[in-house]
Amino acid sequence: MADEKDKLTIVMFSGDLDHALAGFSLATTAASMGMEVSMFFTYWGLNIIKKMRVKSEAKA
Hints:
The chain is of the alpha+beta class. It has one domain (about 5-50). The protein has helices spanning about 15-30, 45-50, and strands at about 5-10, 35-40.
């Protein structure tokens, strides 16, 4: 078990930019230190990664 990597899981549940930047900063730092990182997006946190699509009008 000495070869096991340290792991970090971050749950993103806020869509606020300052919270998102903090979460991504922690994830990037941990990954650069060789840790295995996972991020789980739920509730308003989904808005951070969801691509906004504009509905086009139907052409007749």
